[in-house]
Design brief:
Elements (H helix, E strand, L loop, with lengths): L9 H24 L9 E5 L5 E5 L2 E3 L18 E3 L4 H14 L1 H9 L5 H9 L2 H5 L10 H6 L4 H24 L4 E6 L4 E9 L4 E14 L2 H8 L13 E13 L6 E12 L5 E12 L5 H16 L5 H12 L1 E2 L4 E2 L3 E8 L4 H12 L2 H11 L7 H20 L2 H8 L5 H4 L20 H10 L6
Antiparallel strand pairs: 1-2, 3-4, 5-6, 6-7, 7-8, 8-9, 9-10, 10-13, 11-12
Helix pairs in contact: 1-2, 3-12, 7-11, 7-12, 9-12
């Protein structure tokens, strides 16, 4: 469970900032003495507080202010990083002043991602009712039923997705200042869901975090879709009882320098004619920036990699490639964004181990995204940059409506709630005829990355 912690003591923040900058400058001096080249391919981890880290790329340190100066067209080619190289002695004093002025801002961004070990232990042993009090809404399944089958996987997964929804919504509310509309809905065929949506906020144009827990009998169309992925499903009298649950989110920020993020983690059970159950997990987290930022890409992918590496060294490289293949707009010849991880039909090595992996992934959604939001919170932008964001959103819509497996499953399932399924679409988007960015622009650089996916870690 991610815990939001904010440090308000100026002296503590300033001390941390001084240590951080001193550590970074010391590292630069040591590297020069050792004749080690510093380039954008080197990453450095600086400890801020126990359990948190701040990543910088190469020699770049980002200093953020609440009064970001406007950019000229020429200045749009590279943003934000103040390079501490060459005349570091001359710039150090100004850098310290700028860093201290924003110490609380850095503390806020980093501490928002801190994961409480105590809360994680509570997840293992905590009382169902006590945990439910922290949710955005009572769970879909009645708490008495959850209490009775506390140790069953469907209960444990429902608790995890409810907690993920609550953690992410509260983190987004903190940065935006707005509140989520909590909308409960029932499905007459069985189950229901909880949609949390914030529209026209200060930071987010549209932010949605949905939970659904549905059950009943699979339609032939849904079963056919599963069989096409290699599932052998044998129903009784033509019926396949199923249970499906998951949490999904898509966040569309107003500022084109804050990326769109998507995540989805889900669990399926299907009962066959002999009473046995097939089960599997699926999901992933991916980032869709409008403009490429290597620091952001590294932070996002490295956070996911660390979560994957706790379980298997091949998970990140395999699921990163899977993500690049899945979020691919074939008719455009480009990926939807810069990826992340994606997996489906995960039913090994055991149910317990697969669930623990999904839990680790779900708990990265705040730490992999919120620092990026805070970092670009006050970036200025031009009308041209906003137009490019609208074009990129159009591509996002194309993928979701044409290729996304979750949208297809939802539309093929009787009683599904269309408002929740289409929550992933932005409020506004744009389709310009034969649009192609001019060569040499940062928009063209973004498109090149989408046409040729990169390894960010």
């Amino acid at each position: 469970m991610a815990t939001i912690v904010f440090c308000t003591a100026n002296r503590t923040a300033q001390t941390t900032a001084r240590r951080c900058l001193t550590t970074h400058l010391t590292g630069l001096a040591s590297a020069r003495e050792s004749h080690l080249p510093f380039s954008s391919t080197h990453s450095h981890s600086v400890t801020l507080l126990p359990g948190t880290r701040w990543f910088s790329r190469g020699t770049g340190v980002r200093f953020m202010s609440h009064g970001t100066a406007g950019r000229s067209a020429a200045g749009r080619t590279r943003r934000g990083a103040l390079a501490l190289s060459g005349a570091a002695a001359v710039t150090a004093a100004a850098a310290v002043a700028g860093f201290l002025a924003n110490a609380n801002h850095f503390q806020r961004a980093e501490m928002a991602t801190r994961v409480s070990q105590a809360a994680e232990e509570e997840e293992q042993e905590g009382d169902i009712l006590a945990r439910c009090r922290r949710f955005m809404s009572p769970p879909v399944t009645d708490t008495s039923v959850l209490q009775q089958r506390k140790m069953e996987m469907r209960t444990r997964m429902e608790m995890l997705i409810m907690e993920t929804q609550a953690d992410f919504c509260r983190a987004l509310q903190e940065v935006d200042g707005g509140t989520f509309k909590v909308d409960r809905w029932d499905r007459k065929e069985g189950g229901g869901g909880i949609s949390c949506v914030m529209q026209d906020g200060k930071v987010f144009e549209k932010a949605g975090v949905n939970v659904s827990v549905v059950f009943g009998n699979l339609t032939e169309e849904a079963a056919k879709q599963m069989r096409s992925r290699g599932k052998v499903l044998k129903g009784k009298d033509g019926k396949l009882p199923f249970c499906a649950m998951g949490v999904s989110s898509v966040i569309h920020p107003k500022n084109p320098h804050i990326p769109t993020v998507h995540f989805n983690y889900r669990y399926f059970e299907v009962e066959e004619e002999d009473g046995t159950k097939q089960w599997w997990f699926g999901g992933g987290t991916d980032l869709t920036p409008v403009y490429i930022n290597k620091e952001d890409a590294f932070h996002f992918h490295n956070t996911l990699k660390e979560a994957c590496d706790k379980h298997h060294p091949q998970y990140y490289p395999d699921f990163k490639k899977w993500c690049d293949r899945y979020f691919y707009i074939r008719h455009r010849g480009e990926t939807r964004g810069i990826g992340g991880i994606f997996f489906d039909d995960l039913d090994s090595p055991s149910q317990e181990e697969a669930f623990n992996f999904v839990k680790s992934c779900a708990r990265t959604v705040v730490p992999c995204y919120l620092p990026i939001v805070y970092k670009h919170l006050n970036d200025s932008f031009t009308d041209e940059e906003k137009d490019w964001q609208q074009v990129r959103r159009g591509r996002y819509v194309e993928f979701n409506l044409v290729y996304d497996r979750g949208v297809k499953f939802g539309l093929a399932t009787p009683g599904s709630r269309i408002e929740s399924i289409l929550m992933s679409l932005p409020l506004t988007a744009r389709w310009e005829y034969m649009h192609e960015p001019a060569k040499g622009t940062i928009e063209a650089e973004m498109l090149e990355v989408l046409r040729n996916p990169k390894d960010w870690v």
